[in-house]
Amino acid sequence: MEKIAISLREATVRYVGASLERASALERVSLDLYRGSWTALLGRNGGGKSTLSKALAGIAPLSNGERTVEKDGSVHMVLQQPETQILGETVIEELALCAAREMASEDLRVLRSRWEELLLEVGLNVPLDEPVKHLSGGQKQLLNVAGCLVAGAECIVLDEATSMLDPASRQAVLGAAVSLHRSGRTIVWATHRMEEVASADRVLVLEHGTIVYDGSPSAFFYGDGDAVPCDALGFEPPFVVRTAKALFALGIPLPSRPLRPEALAEAVNKA
Fold it and tell me: Which of 11, 70, 230, 263 could form a disulfide with 258 if both were Cys (CB 3.0 to 4.6 A apart)?
């Protein structure tokens, strides 16, 4: 039986706007996220995906409803701006700040060795004494991911974590999340880039603070029957899906509905 990592029940988040009128950024959302799952959050600006991300991470207080996390579960978050959550001047200082409890009971040499391995695990190949100001935006995001792990995160919520990065850095951060997911961690990935949805096993689309789609990436991009949620909700599918659909339209019977370039290449070879 799958274990629930995070649960929301009738979760509502209201902010006070400039007009002092109450507006719900999240409206009575109920969902369960299971341990080891990867959930992609989609939606236009103002749709509620960032608010839902923060509610899942426990950062946005609920105006109404309830949030529960599995016993001994730990949820941490990577924000959009790489510098937003970094306080240390060096890599090791930042990791030490994230591991305040661990520092009290562990030998520093043991911690340094463990943290060096952890940096390599997320793909950040820099010395522990490297000044943070020398890191690129992508490296800072990888440091933020490493900080989540040092703090003991079983679930990592990444809110538009690649939106400020160049293509190579986006791929590095996405690759780190994929690796952590394969190791059993729960991933929540909020994005506006459709090509980043391929790694998920579940897609949630938000509009006006409510969930308007909840299903698999394949069903989202290709549909089940006549309706294609991606098209109906006004999103442009990624290049791989557009190419596959063009081949379908030409009468080329692909044996699968690919989401990744390598899956498209394999499907074309088998057609």
Answer: 263
pLDDT per residue as tens digits for the range 4-56: 999 999 999 988 763 444 567 999 999 999 999 999 999 998 899 999 999 99
Give the model confidence (pLDDT) of 157-183 as tens digits: 999 999 999 999 999 999 999 999 999
Rounded-to-integer distance, Cα 118 and Cα 258, Å: 32
In terms of Cβ atoms closer than 10 Å to its own Cβ (0-12, 13-18, 19+), residue 189 is buried
Give the C-alpha separation, 214 to 196, whole Å: 17
Within the chain, strands assigned E span: 4-16, 22-34, 38-42, 64-69, 75-78, 155-159, 186-190, 202-207, 210-215
Sequence letter at residue 164: M
Start-to-end Cα distance in the chain: 37
B/e letters for 133-169, b = 16+ CB within 10 Å, e = fewer, are eebebbbbbbbbbbbbbbbebbbbbbbbbbebbeeeb
